[in-house]
Amino acid sequence: MSIKRYGAEGGTGTGGQRLPFSRAVEAGGWLYVSGQTPMKDGEVVEGGIVEQSRLAIQNCLDIMAEAGYALMDVVHVSVILTDARYFQSFNKVFSEIFGDHPPARICCVADLVVDCKVEVDVTCYNAARV
């Protein structure tokens, strides 16, 4: 089994800092996407929890597409919210995106090292990629 790393050269975080991890790692049909925040071009996009949730999830979907995975390949999502009051709004966005085939999920409340409201990571599986 081989391991393929996407973005191993490191992305750009807030303030232009180099990030020391891969955007995603693929092994044996599994794709693990690193936690994504509502960032574009290394800067947090301002907005409420709905806008930030959409962008964080979209950033995951963009990385998945780069690696050749689709929405239906998502088996698990981890979510970190910075305030428990965001839970219902996040769930609305999550439902809009994943529809009638939601993946397994964990959601917790914690401080983030980036000044935003949400971070999302996904785990995908596609047997055809084994």
TrEMBL record:
One of its GO terms (cellular component) is cytosol. GO terms for molecular function: deaminase activity. This is RidA family protein. Belongs to the RutC family. Pfam families: Ribonuc_L-PSP (PF01042).
